[in-house]
Specification:
Elements (H helix, E strand, L loop, with lengths): L7 H16 L8 H20 L3 H16 L6 H24 L4 H18 L4 H17 L6 H22 L9 H19 L11 H12 L7 H32 L3 H27 L7 H13 L7 H27 L21 H7 L6 H22 L6 H10 L4 H29 L4 H18 L4 H18 L4 H25 L5 H22 L6 H26 L8 H25 L2 H7 L1 H22 L2
Helix pairs in contact: 1-17, 2-3, 2-7, 2-18, 3-4, 3-7, 4-6, 4-7, 5-6, 5-15, 6-16, 8-9, 8-10, 8-11, 9-10, 9-22, 10-11, 10-13, 10-23, 11-12, 11-13, 12-13, 15-16, 16-20, 17-19, 17-20, 18-19, 19-20, 21-22, 21-23, 21-25, 22-23, 24-25
């Protein structure tokens, strides 16, 4: 395999961008409360088992608790239970099977190949599904090296599962008190972000903001495991209002830009003042949801809404001003509804939550459909799954044949480092190695020289390591590797393995695993630049379908919301794909330039579609006005032609 020609400078610059992106501190998924809870969930089984005189049982349960901790992600409590228990079941079942067949090299290899392939394919269905596959493979790797008779192997699986159950129980302990806390907090963040959006001018040439925040909140409120009741119904109303308020803010920002360009500075100032006032109302609604206190006196907020509506009366001098005035009036109505609805949403947990009417549930995408679609030799997900299915069992066989102590670390490194694309693998391999070395040196010194390998003293240290691991979050790979290495050192010390031998073995295995992962992705690459045109074409198709939806009078509101979410997802995928291709150390052959051009022009298309959708009069206009119908049909044909041209590029 040869890399496409490129200059040494451009390749070094691409690798430099990968390093900069990888070392950014991302705090978006750092939650001290969750991290502390997960640390307790790992320590608790150890404390109980040690007190009962069976510390080995506690170690097995701690392994299950750690795997379930990684599945403790944001979302409704019902979904969290399902996700964490699925991870615990997968970990427990594979742990028992691996211990039972551990004596057979062939049977262990087959089990690892199946688990690794599943882990690779599940990555295409999202992080929650991927976590189940990784947990199963990790337990199969580690406990396959500790073979047991069938009866004892079943006990091993049950202990691993029990540790996951303990972690799950702690994760949902607040459910009876704050049944809809995750939903409420996500919606509060969205409204506070909307407030900031209204306060700052929006460039119509940029990507429409808050797409990711809307998708996340939509998945939480309308995804699987949803609940019912007055509060949740209020949250769904607030979500719909947030979607429409965002449209109004973006359209009004575009009107202000147009007026300023045509010398209508006074009208633009009125619009900006109205948006500033809207930001105040949105911030109040967000604070109400965040604080979990109902808005006792909505009067001040409603007064601000009235002043916003009054501002529309002075905009009369041009067609643009009159259009902006109509938009301000509709915005005022939505803000009034948001204020009233947030009063109900703020009472989360203090009303009869089982008496509400049910609502429809839908998913942004069917995970099974995604997995089936990726069972294709052209799919990067299938290539990734195949690489894992070959490398994980093969390296495990090699380390067993060479009698390398705890050689499964090589396979584990490959499992967590290898990604479908070169950029992701490079970042994870480099930072994983560096973070592991730092963690090994620091924690080994602490355990060996300070704690003198006393189990009673090391158990709280294990809790601190898990706390740091979960606080770092999945996006801070290097920092996570530091604490993961510390977790491994302490666990092995509790299991009776000397810490001084752990350092060398773990360090060498991590380096070897990282190198193998990089070589594998280079020998059978999945360069992101080969995916860019398809992602861009999918975005254009999303815009085309969005336009069809906007003029279709028979489209129901749930289907409209689903189409908006699909379009946002397609746009975010295209933007991410272009960014990844830009960071690859190969010649993009103009693909990145094409992507940048399409995205820049696509942003204006997105703003126009949002404006059209927000009027709610497009279907009737399409039926009644021939000129508008001709314009729409021509636009649909143009978008289809663009899609075909991009795919053939």
């Amino acid at each position: 395999m040869t890399l496409p020609a490129t200059t040494g400078h451009s390749r070094a610059a691409a690798l430099g961008r990968l390093w900069v992106d990888a070392t950014k501190l991302d705090r978006t998924q750092s939650d001290p409360l969750v991290a502390a809870r997960n640390g307790v969930g790992v320590v608790l089984p150890l404390v109980v088992a040690t007190a009962l005189g069976h510390p080995a049982f506690g170690l097995l349960a701690a392994i299950g608790a750690i795997q379930a901790a990684f599945a403790d992600r944001p979302g409704p409590y019902r979904r969290r239970v399902t996700r964490m228990l699925a991870t615990a079941v997968a970990a427990g079942v594979t742990a028992g099977m691996a211990a039972a067949v551990g004596q057979s090299l062939v049977a262990s290899a087959v089990l690892l190949a199946v688990c690794a392939f599943a882990a690779g394919q599940l990555l295409s269905a999202g992080p929650s599904a991927a976590r189940v596959g990784i947990a199963a493979t990790v337990c199969a790797l580690v406990l396959g090296h500790i073979p047991e008779p069938p009866a004892l192997a079943a006990g091993t699986g049950l202990l691993v599962f029990a540790g996951g159950v303990v972690q799950t129980v702690l994760a949902i302990a607040a459910w009876p008190l704050r049944r809809h806390g995750p939903e409420r907090r996500s919606l509060a963040r969205l409204y506070l972000q909307l407030a900031n959006l209204a306060a700052d001018p929006v460039d119509p040439g940029s990507s429409p903001p808050l797409g990711a925040a809307l998708s996340e909140t939509t998945a939480i409120l309308r995804g699987g495991g949803h609940d019912h009741g007055p509060s949740v119904e209020a949250y769904r109303v607030l979500l719909d209002l947030a979607e429409r308020i965002r449209q109004d803010v973006l359209v009004l920002s575009a009107y202000a830009v147009r007026l300023r360009e045509k010398g209508g500075g006074a009208g633009a100032a009125v619009i900006h003042a109205a948006l500033q006032s809207a930001g105040t109302v949105l911030a109040t609604a967000g604070d109400t949801l965040r604080s979990r206190r109902p808005l006792d006196d909505p009067g001040p907020s409603l007064d601000v809404v009235a002043s916003i509506q009054d501002a529309a009366e002075v905009l009369r001098d041009s067609v643009t001003e009159r259009a902006a005035a109509n938009r301000i009036r509709t915005l005022a109505g939505k803000l009034r509804a948001a204020v009233e609805t947030s009063r109900t949403g703020g009472t989360e947990g203090r009303l009869n939550e089982d008496s509400g009417a049910s609502s429809h549930s839908w998913r942004l995408r069917d995970p099974l459909e995604v997995i089936r679609a990726n069972l294709d030799l052209r799919s990067s997900a299938l290539r990734h799954a195949t690489r894992l299915a070959v490398l994980v069992p093969l390296t495990d066989i090699a380390t067993r044949a060479a009698s390398i102590p705890r050689g499964y670390w090589v396979s584990l490194t490959i499992l967590v480092v290898l990604r479908p694309d070169f950029g992701g693998t490079f970042q994870r391999a480099l930072l994983r190695v560096l973070g592991t070395l730092v963690g090994l040196v620091l924690v080994t010194g602490l355990v060996h020289y300070v704690l003198s390998e006393q189990p009673a003293a090391m158990i709280p240290v294990l809790g601190l390591m898990v706390f740091g691991l979960r606080l770092a979050g999945p996006n801070n790979i290097g920092l996570s590797a530091v604490f993961l290495s510390g977790t491994v050192v302490v666990l092995l010390s509790l299991g009776g393995y000397p810490t001084e031998t752990t350092v060398a073995e773990r360090a060498i295995a991590t380096v070897v695993g990282g190198v193998i992962a990089l070589v594998a992705v280079l020998l059978w690459p999945s360069w992101e630049r080969s995916q860019v045109t398809d992602r861009l074409a999918d975005m254009i198709v999303g815009y085309r379908d969005y336009l069809r939806m906007a003029v279709d009078p028979g489209m129901s509101e749930p289907k409209r919301a689903a189409r908006r979410s699909h379009t946002r997802l397609a746009r975010s995928n295209a933007e991410a794909s272009v960014d990844r291709a830009r960071s690859e150390p190969v010649d993009p052959r103009g693909t990145v330039d094409l992507g940048d051009s399409i995205l820049a022009n696509g942003h204006r298309v997105a703003h126009a579609l949002l404006a059209l959708d927000s009027t709610r009069a497009a279907p009737d206009t399409y039926e009644r006005v021939p000129e508008f119908r001709a314009l729409t049909d021509a636009s649909l044909e143009t978008l289809s032609a663009l899609e075909r041209a991009v795919r053939q590029d």
